[in-house]
Structure formats: structure tokens, C-alpha cells
Specification:
This protein is of the alpha/beta class. It is built from 10 helices and 15 strands. Strand 9 and strand 10 form a beta hairpin. It has one domain: Metallo-beta-lactamase, Chain A (4-Layer Sandwich), CATH 3.60.15.10. Helix content is 23%, strand content 28%. The relative contact order is 0.15.
Length: 313
């Protein structure tokens, strides 16, 4: 392996389920029963504020600069960007990859006009999607694909669409991405599997939405140093992994990754409680390092050393 990694760092822009955390039902509940949601009203509870799952991959480019590749742009992306773009001194989005066409992955597309309108930051954003995702976007947001369908003032973001194959690697800004197809629930009408895609890049695997990982996808995950994996809460769910399912998956990888970060949490999960549970697990099973990610967490890679920056892990 080269001594210089392609990936400089990854930053978690969102680590919550589709509805996000906190839940308005909990914050307005007279009985005030939800520990996680209520904690978000305090400074120390900020790690429990979770926007839709999204990841920023910062890539060391051959020209000496760093490129910003975003994975998913859901309902809360703009709120995430308002928080983390200034915080980390970010500006441009060099590419966007979409894992699937659910609202929590694509509904922030219109907000990207803040980057491209009047070329304020950049002229265009390259977007990488499967044909299935693109067809859904054409229905949901036709004007972002075909600007002739814009109405009103006609202020729309400027995109360059790139169709990818979920079975074939592709390269963005010098970094190769290998798609990791996973099941994310079923179609209610046909009962057929609904598929999302994760990605492997530079010995990192990222899977944000899954309840089943096919064996051929597992095979592509072996040898990863960092794995980010969906884990909604403690119970099994029809379209997401539970905490235990995520842990069992990691234990079956060869070798076990140096670090595993869980993401996609509901309000059932409290960050500090789960962190302590995972530390106890690490004591029982040496070599099994698992922690909950949180919005704003930055994970840096340098040679064979992996570092986390942010709140205590």
C-alpha cells in the first residue's frame, strides 16, 4: 500500500434515521420520557442531534489539493452544511454520490443551488447515481435534471449527471469507489428486495441503509480497515440493521476492521450510553473496536494510523 492515502479524512455530516433526532413528539411530550431527545437541549447532548445520514470524503488529489466528495444529500443536508461547512473551513462540493432515492438521501438536491447559483462557489456539481435513482429524481425533481421544466424564477442548481453501475467500480477525483449493493427493505407491492448501495474506497467501507448484506457484497468488504455501518437501534427492523446485527457482521469480516463506526440511529440510541456499551464489548472481545458516530465527527487517516477527532469516543 502507498504511504500516502488517497483519503485524507471522512466527516460525518449526518448520523440519524430518516426522521432525524430529536423527535418533535418527544420534545413536546408533557411526560418528558425520552432521554436522548431531551438531552439535545443541553450543550453536552449535542452529539445526540442527528441529521439524515451523509458522509463527506476528503480526497488527497494528485495536484496537491483536497477534493470534497459527499455521499447523500437528504432532507437535512443544508442544515448540516450550515453547521459543518464553516466549522471545518469547507466550501466546494466536487462531487455527490447518491446511495438510493429515498427522501433522506435525495431531498436536499434543490438546496445545492446555494453552491452553483450565479456561480457563487462553483459552476456545477457532478452527481453520481444509478439509473434507478436517476429515474426517481426525474419524477420527484424534474427541473434538476431538465432545467427547461423549471418554473417561478427558474433558480435551479446546476448538475452534471453521471450514471453508474451498481456492479462496477468507478473513479471520482482519482479515488476508486466499489459499489456495495445491499437490501434496504422491500417493495410493499411486489415484496421484492429494495436495493441501496454502499461503497468501498481506500480501505474504507460505508453502508448507511441496509437490513441484509448479500454474501457477494460481504466478500468485497473483507480487508477493510474502517467500516461505517447502519444500526438503527436495539431491535431488528424491516429495513435497517440493529446494533447486534451490525456487530455480528463486523465479527465475520476477515480481518476484523481496526475501527467500526455505527450510524443511522433512531432516538432509542443515546450516544454516551452506547459508547460505554461498546467499550465494555471491546474489553470482552479483544480487537473488536466499535463506536457510535455522531454528526460532525472527523476520522483522519495517516499511513497505517487511524485517528478520530471530535467528541470523546
Amino acid at each position: 500500500m502507498s504511504s500516502i492515502r488517497k483519503v485524507k479524512e471522512i466527516i460525518f455530516l449526518g448520523t440519524g434515521t430518516s426522521s432525524g433526532v430529536p423527535a418533535i413528539s418527544c420534545l413536546t411530550d408533557p411526560e418528558k420520557k425520552c432521554k436522548t431527545c431531551l438531552s439535545t437541549l443541553t450543550p453536552e447532548g449535542e452529539v445526540n442531534i442527528r441529521r439524515n445520514t451523509s458522509l463527506l470524503v476528503r480526497v488527497n488529489h494528485e495536484d496537491g489539493g483536497v477534493r470534497n466528495i459527499v455521499i447523500d444529500c437528504g432532507k437535512t443536508f443544508y442544515v448540516s452544511a450550515l453547521k459543518w461547512w464553516p466549522h471545518y473551513g469547507l466550501r466546494q462540493i466536487d462531487a455527490l454520490i447518491l446511495t438510493h432515492p429515498h427522501a433522506d438521501a435525495i431531498n436536499g438536491l434543490d438546496d445545492l443551488r446555494s453552491w452553483t447559483l450565479n456561480k457563487r462557489i462553483q459552476e456545477q456539481i457532478s452527481i453520481y447515481v444509478t439509473n434507478e435513482t436517476l429515474e426517481t429524481i426525474k419524477t420527484s425533481f424534474p427541473y434538476v435534471v431538465d432545467t427547461s421544466q423549471a418554473t417561478g424564477g427558474g433558480d435551479v442548481p446546476s448538475f452534471k449527471w453521471n450514471v453508474i453501475d451498481s456492479k462496477s467500480p468507478f473513479t471520482i477525483e482519482g479515488l476508486e469507489f466499489t459499489p456495495l449493493p445491499v437490501q434496504h427493505g422491500i417493495y410493499f407491492t411486489t415484496k421484492k428486495p429494495y436495493m441501496s448501495i454502499g461503497f468501498r474506497f481506500d480501505n474504507i467501507c460505508y453502508i448507511s441503509d441496509c437490513n441484509v448484506i448479500p454474501e457477494d457484497t460481504i466478500a468485497k468488504m473483507h480487508g477493510s480497515e474502517i467500516v461505517v455501518l447502519d444500526a438503527l437501534d436495539y431491535k431488528q427492523h424491516s429495513s435497517h440493521f440493529s446494533i447486534q446485527q451490525a456487530i455480528d457482521t463486523i465479527k465475520n469480516l476477515v480481518p476484523i476492521p481496526k475501527r467500526t463506526y455505527l450510524t443511522g440511529f433512531s432516538h432509542v440510541i443515546e450516544h454516551y450510553d452506547l459508547t460505554e456499551e461498546m467499550k465494555l464489548l471491546e474489553e470482552k472481545e479483544s480487537g473488536l473496536w466499535v463506536r457510535p458516530a455522531h454528526d460532525g465527527l472527523k476520522v483522519c487517516t495517516e499511513d497505517d494510523i487511524i485517528m478520530s477527532n471530535g467528541h470523546k469516543n
